[in-house]
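Q: I'm writing up a methods section and want to include an example of the input and output format. Could you take the sequence below and give the corresponding predicted structure tokens, formatted cleanly so I can copy it straight into the document?
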Amino acid sequence: MSKAERFERLMGAGTQGSLKTRSIRAAFWTSASSFADFALRIGSIAVTARLIIPEHFGLFMMVTAITAIVEQVRELGLSSATVQRQTLSHAEVSNLFWINTGTSLALALLLLAAAPLIASYYREPRLIALTASLTINTFLGGFLVQHQALLTRKLKMGATSAVRLSASVLSTGLCIGLAALDYGYWALVLREISRTVILVSGVWFCLPWIPSLPDRRVSVRPLLNFGANLTVANILSSIAGALDRFLLGRLWGAAHVATYRQAYQLITAPNDQLLSPVYVVVHPALSRLQGEPERFRRYFGRLLMIVGFVTMPISLFTVVFAPEVTLLLLGPEWTASAPVVRILSISTFAMQCANCTFFVLLTTGRSRMYLKLSLMNQTASLTGILAGVSWGPIGLAVASATGTYLLLVPKVYLALRESPFSMRDYFATLRRPFISSVVMGAALLALKPFLVQGIPSNTLCVLLASLCAALMVGAVWMLQPGGMAEIRMMVDSVLSSARRKAAG
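A: Here is the clean output for your methods example:
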């Protein structure tokens, strides 16, 4: 059997069943692993924040500001191109594989050469060895891109979810062990390298596809053109996301970098982990519905509803209980992060729902508009960072929240303008999670003095407040028109998929 025939067989296997059934099945596996990974990540943050001093976190975060940009260049937008393309050959994917790995090698060498310059910019000689070590990650990451994209395209999430969870468990265990032995920032560095090694090994095991040598006769120009727009957009996003660390590290020092970035990660971790299974499934599923406007509209509406249901209540809960959540998860050494946590939570209340509209652009091939929106978004972000950095971490958080709400309507309008999903659909879909979250937030604000003063344990206070919040959101959701029907529909979808799986 030739490599091309083996590729066709691999890509054809395991794709039986309707899109809806396969999507729900994929979402189940990724959800299960993501919930476990979420608990692991939160636990890891809580433990390592007590074992590693803020300065060492800051040193690590200064370098990851650079590597985050490098990762976007390494991928070249080709994973999205592979998922979005309706037909794809073995030779095309092979060419993309070698482009990704060649780019990764070049970037790793470039980063290695730039290590002394990075240390000089931050005026921190320890960053030379730290940066040089992370070039291993840069190179190895190139071997992940196409295999992960092909597995996503197939909606084959069970085994890959196990690989990701195993990588997280093993690398986190290594990090905590090294941190307990007082390895400081080296514990964080080795966590990242070990995680990538495990991911590469596991993903190749799940999809035993071996690329052919590059073939110049096979053109991948359309894929590169699609990926080029995404690459520029993602690089701009990474630069904007890293500029806070560039400037804080230079002007305020490593400890202030850690204060801001730990708060940022505390806010993004729950949303990223809880929504990642949804996003993994949505990209290939929506790509297959490009020619069916009504189904596309319903599917994206379901996505938006889930995003609002997850992010809006969590954000407002954190706004109300920011000091308590920060103390619980990071410990007393990180109390300076609490105001930043509160301000960034105000931003994430609307940010995730606005950003998920970009899936409409990605899955319909409108990468040029994606680039234009990214330019607008990142220009505003860079302006805000430059204006806010003089006031330290709190100034950056205020700038982030201000930019989110100033760009909300223009960004959503431009993303949805030529799609089956209208602005009216957008706000109508978010009405129920918005009302449920606002009522919950107001109730928690009234209850907080009694909870904080009446419960001596901070941990117990946060847990009890979380339970109250969940009950209030659920009750308000069901009391709104159509709330019970929405819940029944979601339950029926899951049960229907389970029955089909059992029958198959």
